[in-house]
Amino acid sequence: MSQGTQEKTEKATPKRRKKAREEGQVAKSRELTMALSLLLLLVFFLGTIPIGLGYFQQFLHYSLTADVTMELTEANLHRRAMEAARVAALIIIPMLSASALFGLAGELTQVGFLFTTKVLTPKPERLNPIKGLQRIFSKRAVVELLKAMLKAGMFIGVAYSILRDFIPVLLKIPHMAITDALSEVGMVIFQIGITIAIFHLIISVLDYAYQRWEHEKNIRMSKKDVRDEHKDTEGDPQIQSKIKERQRFMAQQRMMQEVPTANVVITNPTHLAIALRYDGEEMNAPQVVAKGSGEVAFKIVEIARANNVEVMEEKALAQALFHSTEIGEEIPPELYQAVAEILAFVFRLQKYYS
């Protein structure tokens, strides 16, 4: 299979998920937002309906008991209209505000806070009529159609089953007091609404699960995509290897520059070499300024001899120093005695030949 047609079988990486989120690609169900909003709105409505009925009752009482001889002037009609608008606003505005708030809460529950303008960026492929037809007859469009049919059937069925049981009560409404009639109608509406909301919530949960599955499928990556992302993040392995090799070379060069400052180089005799420096005024113990094995050890010895640094063969001590101390560190206390004897000998030689 060619690289351009590789199947996207790998789960999205965190970087891919972040990029998709920045582009507005998130798992989100409008149905779940609507269902939560409707359910919470009905609960809010149940809690505030006594207040709304109180406002409405006051308005009716005022309208029916006001001076019936009031002239139908423009000013009087305007005053009545403003009063009706005020009552309607007191009932409707809280519900609309609550609806908007619950809708926002539903979005935040699913997606969290996300602000992006990339979804508004015009895309040329959206103007392609062939792609437009493909979207119309796509699997997603079929799912949306089936979902709409299921919702419509559910809503009609729920409304019919509830209204059928309430028909005897509804037939008595014309003979009821206005408050009792409003209460009965409100109860019927509420029962229809709460039943629909519960069924809608069940459908929306299934829809959200489907949206999550589809989202995960859409952001999947091919093995090549994963490799390319890894290269972009970590760098090309060959380039990284060359960089590390260059870093090792430069570190080795700096280490070799320290060899002439050593007092003695202890060898194994050719496999290992450890260069030691000691300054009683600046150091508490001798310090390793260079060490290496194989060719590096040979180079350390070569530089040491070229700069008149004593080279002494001490196999056991060389092994202990090589494995217990890193470059720039002081030697461990258990090696003080052995190293002190060698340094004392070296200092005596230097004093003798000076």
Task: List its salient traits.
354 residues; mainly alpha; name from scop; 4 strands
3D structure, described in words:
With 354 residues, the protein is mainly α. The protein folds into 2 domains: 220 residues, no CATH class; 102 residues, name from scop. The chain is 68% helix and 6% strand. It is built from 11 helices and 4 strands, in the order ααααααααβββαβαα. A 4-stranded mixed sheet has the order 3-2-1-4, sandwiched between helices. β1 and β2 form a beta hairpin. α2 runs antiparallel to α6 and α5 packs antiparallel against α6. The longest helix has 41 residues. The mean pLDDT is 78.
Please outline the helices and strands.
Elements: H1 14-22, H2 30-65, H3 74-111, H4 129-136, H5 139-172, H6 178-218, H7 223-234, H8 237-258, E1 264-267, E2 272-277, E3 287-293, H9 295-306, E4 310-313, H10 315-324, H11 336-353
Parallel strand pairs: 1-4
Antiparallel strand pairs: 1-2, 2-3
Helix pairs in contact: 2-3, 2-6, 5-6
